[in-house]
Amino acid sequence: MPKDEPIAPKTLDLIRAQMSRRGVIAGVGGLGVAGLLAACSTSSPKGATSGSPSGSPSAIADTGGTVRWANWTLYLDYDSKTKKYPTLEAFQKQSGIKVKYMEDVDDNNSFYGKVQGQLKLGQDIGYDIVTLTDWMATRWIRLGYTQTIDATGIPNKVNILDALNNVSFDPGRHQSLTWQSGFAGFGWNKQKIPGGIKTLDQLFAPANKGKIEVLSEMRDTMGIILQYQGVDISSNFTEAQFMNGIDFLTKKISDGFIRKVVGNSYKEDLVSGDAVAVIGWSGDFFQLNAQSNGKFDFALPESGGTLWSDNMMIPSTSHNRKNAEAVMNYYYEPAVAAQVAAYVNYICPVKGAQAEMEKINPALAKSPYIFPDATALSKAKVFRALTPAEETTFTTAFQKATGN
Amino acid sequence: MAYLQSVVTRAGYFTSKKGRLPYLLLFPGMLWLFTFFVLPIINLAGTSTQTPVAGGETGQYVQTFRFANYIDAFNQARPQFARSFLYATLATLLALAISYPLAYAIAFRSGRFKNILLVLVVAPFFTSFLLRTVAWKQILGEQGFVVPALRSMHIIGQNTSLTASALAVVTGMTYNFLPFMTLPLYASLERIDPRTLEASNDLYANGITTFRKVTFPLSMPGVVAGTLLTFIPAAGDYVNAAILGNPNTTMIGNVIDSRFFNIVDYPTAAALSFMLMAAILILVTIYIRRSGTDELV
């Protein structure tokens, strides 16, 4: 066998699909192995802590140097031949700023557990950019663990999609900037359900009983149930409204409609035929269909789906804000964003990237999973930020409903 | 310790000058046990009586010595506790039923294949526990051979599936812990002196009586060790329930996992862990006492 034979693009796609970002979560975080390590460092809080980080963001000097960026695995365009990240290489060449890119996040909770002690004490956590999911970003911002982003340092910030600009945890995006986003909605096997699924009633049709799976991510599953019940999940809904949704879920589980409450392993179950309809993530269906000749379909519920994001933030302990902002600015250039999107296949948060994608890969430019149109975006809401007390109550209720 | 001392003294080998040697030999083990068992246990005990900080951040707890945490935790997880012990018991009994004939055959009837058979028993350990469990998902799934076969024989309905069920969880546990049952059984069966069996024969006992009166009692240490090695990890297992079960078949391990990592409710998770340990300890003590093999194990 020739030594330097390039891997066929199809094979690469397969590998990628096998190891999608969410896949890594399910593999590691899903069984709590990574979290186990985190618990070791977080399970002994010392009394009541007021949790105020020392040193206000503006007081921290910009000492420059290498930008250290923590992100999820397989979440940036990667060239397996050169073992480099093409866009990142280009940035370093053009700006002279060095970036150390680390795939250090594989679970929100375990990552937080690893760095929270230092954050609390105001000690360097070893990262200048962290990339965390909405609800964890909420916690960081609430605790003052992030630095205010200087808009003049990121002129490209205006390119953010409108739907992502005014989120409840960071209105106007002064502490965070979206890295990639995704939808949660209905996914189904087209051979088994030719009519498709547009409402929750269609998902829970008697014919699908015992072959339905929903996401273990509370905000996605509950977000869809609550919107079905007429609740606006981005506004201040009440605990009673949330519990109504929990009752609905509990009933469906005790009646045997729901086969499993899972992370992304619903993909395997759809492929094997053990599940025929799910509440799942848009990006997964992009990959599923690439592998199975369009056997599956995905749609946002008529009553509304959810929109989640992973967000770049500059930790309060970073001394490298200016350069970190330069990195963020670079990735909000439409052409660069398109290059990243062509690799990661999640929703690209940058306006203008679709036009740039036409030049790279016209087929991807038409993908509703990467570039959703305005109607799709208007059908998906971001789950509102919860207070710590709500977070505990809601998560407990959800875990209990799902058998835990 | 005292026992060791008396042996040492009786042997008269270790004089006063060398009296420290047994302690030195014990030191690495003790250090290990202290660092990775005693300290975490103390930490866990401390965590189990904490309460949330009023108005505090998720995961912030303060020590208030609230022992009612245990009662609350138990009441919330009663069904999962019951399920854990039920499934673990079923898996242990099934594993015993499968392993005993297997161990017996390897010990007495395998001839020159003995070593190969023993390697085959251990062979699954060369693959990851997770992978082996996921494999069962496929065996029992729609694409496996079991479901279509059972359907065509009309043993199960056309829409009945075997995955995501209590049956799958117990099957997975039985399979995963089978070597832990087989090896101790083999070890004690293999040690049985064939002359005892011959003597039984000479005394006009038939095969069944010999098994009942000689073989089985002599293999009791293996039975006890095997059932313990299966039951204890099975009761605390959550991987099988997570991969092969459904939301109505979760076990106590799943609740502890969810409390620790999803709800970030460390006190309840710690309290549940302690109750699980206590329950297992009590059951095991009663079991060993009743089986009358405390000297043998």
Features:
heterodimer; A: 404 residues; alpha/beta; D-Maltodextrin-Binding Protein, domain 2; two-stranded antiparallel ribbon; disordered N terminus; B: 297 residues; mainly alpha; MetI-like fold; globular
Order of helices and strands of chain A: HHHEHEHEHHEEEHEHHEHEHEEHHHHHEH
CATH structural architecture of the largest domain in chain B: Orthogonal Bundle
Structural class of chain A: alpha/beta
Number of individual domains of chain A: 2
Count interface residues per chain for the largest interface: A-B, 45 and 47 residues
How much beta of chain A, percentage-wise?
15-25%
What is the fourth-level CATH superfamily of the largest domain in chain A? Periplasmic binding protein-like II
Computed CA radius of gyration of chain B, to the nearest angstrom: 24 Å
Mean pLDDT of chain B: 89
Anisotropy-based shape of chain A = globular
Strand percentage of chain B: under 5%
Q: What structural class should be given to the helix and strand makeup of chain B?
A: mainly alpha
- In the CATH scheme, what's the topology name of the largest domain in chain A? D-Maltodextrin-Binding Protein, domain 2
Tell me about the largest β-sheet of chain A. 10 strands, mixed
Biggest sheet strand order of chain B reads 1-2
**Separation of termini of chain A?**
51 Å
The domain tally of chain B reads 2
Mean pLDDT of chain A: 84
